[in-house]
Design brief:
about 200 residues, 3-stranded mixed beta sheet, Histidine-containing Protein, Chain: A, single chain, 2 domains
Length: about 200
């Protein structure tokens, strides 16, 4: 009787060690394989996207090897680290958006550069004007776009439902006063790897 009781206690303990092996080493997600809702195919796609993006960031400058890191989950890219100025951050964001299969990009890179209040206020005003214009334009789904402005240069990233919407976004950016340049990385929804049904 005691032997059966001991076995009933030991077997569940041994079996729990078999479930939930970490996938951090293979896919770099840090989540348990047993609870990861992504298919194996999606996990492999994410891993390939992450390696591709990391290589392209490294080709931009070797100093990013230690200062910038990225993760990809279901086509959503997360970037962290530190760079010397906002322009570097925006270049890395552009690279991330141009990664094949990217559905969204979250850039949490911090800037080491000194803060310039006057320039930042002008850039914030440009960003606010463009965001407002896009919200009021019925042909644009403004929530699909990320806007950054640095030294009067607008960087806009996002997903357009149609090519007409993409053209409309570009038109709105060019109508903002004091803008010196526009860098657009807008992907059409038809070009996405995974689409919602």
């Amino acid at each position: 009787m005691k032997f059966k009781f001991v076995i009933l206690i030991i077997i569940p303990i041994i079996l729990t060690g078999c479930v939930g092996v970490s996938s951090k080493g293979l896919f770099g997600t840090g989540v348990s394989v047993a609870f990861d809702p992504r298919t194996v195919g999606t996990q492999i796609d994410d891993s390939i996207m992450q390696k591709n993006l990391s290589a392209r960031i490294l080709m931009l400058d070797k100093k990013y090897l230690l200062s910038v890191s990225s993760k990809v989950l279901d086509g959503r890219i997360f970037i962290t680290g530190k760079v010397d100025n906002p322009e570097e951050k925006l270049k890395i964001t552009k690279l991330a958006w141009e990664t094949k299969g990217a559905r969204s990009v979250r850039n949490d890179i911090k800037i080491k550069e000194d803060f310039n209040f006057k320039q930042s206020a002008k850039d914030l005003l440009i960003t606010s004007q463009l965001r407002t214009a896009m919200i009021f334009n019925k042909k644009i789904k403004a929530s699909n776009y990320q806007i950054d402005t640095y030294k009067k240069k607008i960087y806009i990233y996002g997903i357009a439902l149609t090519s007409d919407e993409k053209d409309e976004v570009i038109k709105e950016t060019k109508e903002i006063l004091d803008v010196e340049d526009v860098v657009a990385s807008i992907i059409l929804v038809d070009d996405l790897r995974v689409q919602k049904k």
